[in-house]
Write a structure and sequence with these properties.
The complex is a heterodimer.
Chain A (H helix, E strand, L loop, with lengths): L2 H18 L9 H20 L4 E4 L5 H5 L4 E4 H6 L6 H10 L8 H14 L8 E6 L3 H14 L3 E5 L12 H21 L7 H25 L8 H5 L10 H20 L10 E7 L9 H5 L2 E6 L23 H10 L7 H14 L4 E6 L4 H18 L2 E6 L10 H27 L1
Chain B lengths: L7 H9 L9 H8 L4 E4 L6 H6 L3 E4 L21 H11 L8 E5 L3 H13 L4 E5 L7 H22 L5 H24 L9 H13 L2 H17 L9 E7 L5 H9 L2 E8 L3 H4 L9 H10 L10 H14 L4 E4 L6 H4 L2 H10 L4 E3 L9 H16 L1
Parallel strand pairs in B: 1-2, 1-3, 3-4, 5-6, 5-7, 7-8
The chains are: A alpha/beta, B alpha/beta.
Chain lengths: 437, 382
């Protein structure tokens, strides 16, 4: 049984288990999510067997465009994120044995480990590699290494830096992205047998993506209500980027938004019944435990994760409000990468963080810093200073790993979270006193 | 009073000391006394030519070589690119207060985030970052040309001068002369006993990045005949190494390698061979010429065409009769660390011994590094 087949069995078992014994705090729509994952792996196995082309990629790749060329985008990044806990030690051992740095972000190590899995025939061999070099050098380098090592056609999209103007005013950058995407189409049509760009398909996928984003808007709106209708674990949940526009995914998000709105109307919280404070998670969180439970146990809601559903305003098809005119389908794919708040200079990130801090009325921010994450860690202190100065929001900087459980000290982590909760309560009390004076 | 006439060796030693901590501010301060401006250069992908054409001094920013960075960690974490924290420490200590401007690129995420802190603090009035494309193709050259055009305008405004094509051509010639002279020195390095040790060579290339080009060119030009004859104080039998890395500006690291029994006969360093090998080919449009030449310069690990650079390293190994390659990234210098497996594989396939050792930015862990490098050198002797 290969890795994907094991995943199929794992998701089947998980679905059965949840149906038999639903969690009182988690969303029941999670069953739909697991069904989606099940289908995702089943489709991948089927297409792998049929010899259909796969394209290895990572975040900010033009997934919809690649798919509109008849190529299955396969995000090594997301595959790394979904790495089953039991495989982590072996996959990490393999990648570190090559000399790949073990002091870097472990999400990057997990992504790179998919290369070794490819060489061992555990996951599909890509026909090509497409990388958008934008917010994270590490992930991009891991995939580029894959292209070099596997000797498959590799296209690197060079995403220009956003500096002194908001991304939606950067026409020159957008033009550059558009030119490269057309160049990429030509490259893939030449290098990957059977690849052919179908604009109608791209438009269809972009409409699907828009529908997903509309559900994210509903989720964000519902997140404003207190107690929080979403558990921290569910705010952190992300669907694979390479299936973001599929009809079942839209159905899943509709269910999530419905459920959140229902809870919100009824004044019911997901994990916190009586919410005393609320925080957002930035950068990441541990994948191997519920990293939010220690806050939630204290009465702190976690309605939002920085890169989670509803946190980022990605440009949408037929939207004129963001760029001042409708963008063409290819421009939209280019604009997608430019919109990433982790790309660009610090205030692009701050602009996005400030917006959701204000919208969902956060009292604190947890900066979960992955050692080696240059993009987030390098701006953490500036974001924290601004959050404190402009919004009076408390900050907790905590170092940790997404996958590497061996380095994790749960007791210490729990203590820090509880201390932070106590600090938030104290600050709220002081503020109430000040306000009543 | 008579001015002492310096011997060639004394002139050489003076030139080599230009980027020593006690010397490196001398040139920009003298420049400023003449009422001219000084621009700090964080990354070697920004064409110095544009700064020179504006009548300003491009001055390579070197971080403090002191071990502790207590001020920097107020703004940046410790487990990131150590060079960035040392540069920030210098900024916060006021060591760059004389700068009129500083130019960054998005060389990697760490440099981008270092720019963020500079921009946040606003201690240097003119702080800019430009995107250097990672690909080498027409789309990238044209995009970079436009970015350089904006930089040209902004520098012109800062200096209240118009930067004409003619002044750009002159600057291209001036900087081209610097690199051509340095390439001659690199040619001498092919000798069994090169004229300079690796440590001295690094001092020379960094000197070219902090001194006014005209003065540097005159000095090096005068010293070339002497260098052609000079023999570095080394034994002929020493193992010849090529060192690969970024932001190695502390010559103590190269000295340490040489103390371990090797001669650093060639380098693949951003402020070494990779800048020296940059030749700006003139085709009439100076900004386009600069954009194209800088993007096509020997590639660093951030560039998509890095594979070509590895082939270049393999070529240099043959040309410079190199016995082994020392990959020398600094701790958390992830752009290089992420390519370690591929770097090793390519060199292994070419039959070239290679070892990777991590270092700090300031000179540290010397004993441990000496032992490890010494073991590598011993292995190469066998």
């Amino acid at each position: 049984m290969n890795y994907f087949e094991e995943e199929v069995e794992r998701y089947k078992r998980r679905i059965e288990r949840i149906k038999a014994n639903p969690s009182p705090t988690m969303l029941w729509s999670n069953v739909k999510f697991y069904e989606l994952m099940l289908k995702h792996y089943q489709t991948m196995i089927e297409e792998w067997r049929e010899g259909k082309p796969f394209c290895a990629c990572a975040d900010l790749a033009p997934y919809r465009l690649i798919k509109a060329m008849g190529i299955r985008p396969f995000s090594w990044e997301m595959q790394g994120d979904y790495l089953p806990r039991k495989l982590v030690p072996e996959y990490f051992r393999r990648v570190r044995a090559t000399g790949f740095p073990d002091n870097g972000c472990d999400r990057v190590q997990a992504t790179a480990s998919i290369l070794m899995a490819t060489e061992k025939g555990e996951v599909p061999m890509p026909s090509c590699v497409v990388v958008t070099k934008a917010d994270c050098n590490g992930l991009a380098e891991a995939i580029i290494w894959g292209g070099r090592q596997l000797r498959v056609p590799t296209y690197v999209i060079d995403c220009p830096l956003a500096s002194d103007v908001p991304y939606e005013e950067r026409w020159e950058a957008l033009k550059y992205m558009e030119e490269q995407l057309y160049d990429m189409i030509g490259f893939l049509e030449k290098e990957v047998p059977g690849a052919k760009y179908d604009e109608a398909k791209l438009i269809e996928y972009l409409h699907g993506f828009r529908k997903v984003m509309e559900q994210h808007d509903r989720m964000r709106e519902a997140s404003k209500s207190k107690p929080c209708p979403l558990s921290g674990k569910d705010s952190f949940r992300m669907a694979p980027l390479d299936m973001i526009e599929e009809p079942e995914l839209i159905e899943y998000y509709v269910m999530v938004a419905d459920e959140m709105e229902e809870k919100s109307k009824a004044g019911r919280g997901a994990s916190v019944r009586e919410e005393k404070a609320r925080v957002g998670f930035l950068c990441s969180a541990p994948f191997f435990i519920d990293g939010f439970q220690y806050l939630e146990e204290c009465g702190v809601g976690v309605p939002i994760y920085e890169a989670g559903s509803g946190a980022i305003d990605f440009p949408r098809i037929d939207d004129e409000s963001t760029w001042g005119r409708k963008l063409s389908p290819i421009e939209l794919e280019g604009a997608y990468a430019l919109a990433d708040p982790w790309h660009g200079v610090w205030w692009h990130r701050w602009r996005a963080v400030r917006k959701f801090c204000q919208e969902v009325e956060l009292d604190g921010l947890v900066h979960f810093e992955l050692p080696g994450c240059e993009t987030c860690n390098g701006s953490t202190k500036l974001i924290a200073k601004m959050a404190e100065k402009e919004l009076g929001i408390a900050n907790l900087e905590i170092e940790g790993w997404c996958h590497d459980q061996e380095k994790f000290n749960e007791a210490e982590y729990a203590e820090k979270m509880r201390d932070f909760a106590a600090l938030l309560f104290e600050r709220k009390k002081s503020k109430i006193k000040e306000d009543t004076r | 009073m008579k001015t002492k006439v310096l011997s060639d060796e004394e002139r050489l030693q003076k030139l080599l000391s230009a980027n020593n901590p006690e010397e490196r501010n001398k040139w920009p301060l003298e420049w400023k006394k003449q009422g001219k401006k000084v621009i700090g250069m964080i990354d070697y992908y920004v064409p110095e030519e544009i700064v020179c054409a504006a009548g300003m001094l491009p001055w390579k920013v070197t971080g403090t070589w002191q071990p502790a960075t207590p001020l920097a960690v107020e703004y940046r974490p410790v487990n990131v690119d150590v060079a960035c924290n040392h540069i920030l420490e210098s900024l916060l200590r006021g060591e760059y207060d004389f700068l009129d401007g500083v130019i960054f690129t998005d060389w990697d995420d760490d440099i981008r985030r270092l720019y963020d802190v500079f921009e946040f603090l606003k201690r240097i009035p003119f702080t800019r970052i430009i995107h250097v494309p990672r690909n080498s193709n027409e789309l990238a050259y044209r995009y970079y040309e436009r970015s350089l055009g904006r930089l040209q305008t902004e520098l012109g405004e800062l200096g209240q001068v118009g930067i004409s094509d003619s002044s750009l051509h002159q600057a291209i010639q001036l900087c081209g002369t610097t690199r051509a002279l340095l390439r001659k020195v690199y040619e001498f390095r092919k000798k069994d006993i090169p004229p300079l040790t690796g440590e001295e060579n690094l001092k020379l290339t960094t000197a070219s990045l902090v001194m006014p080009k005209g003065i540097f060119n005159k000095e090096l030009s005068d010293l070339l005949p002497y260098l052609e004859e000079r023999k570095a104080p080394i034994k002929q039998s020493q193992v010849r190494l090529l060192v690969s890395g970024e932001r190695i500006d502390h010559p103590g690291y190269v000295e340490l390698i040489e103390k371990a029994g090797a001669i650093v006969a060639m380098d693949d360093i951003d402020i070494g061979s990779r800048q020296v090998w940059t030749v700006v080919k003139s085709n009439g449009n100076p900004l386009y010429d600069l954009a194209k030449s800088y993007i096509r310069r020997p590639a660093c690990p951030r560039m998509t065409e890095y594979e070509m650079q590895l082939n270049q390293v393999i070529e240099w190994v043959k040309e410079y009769k190199i016995d082994g390659v020392l990959n020398f990234p600094h701790m958390y210098g992830f752009s290089r660390l992420y390519v370690v497996p591929h770097f090793k594989k390519m060199l292994d396939e070419a039959g070239i011994p290679v070892a990777t050792f991590l270092r700090e930015y300031h000179l540290a862990n010397q004993g441990q590094l000496m032992t490890r490098i010494g073991a590598f050198v011993e292995m190469l002797k066998k």
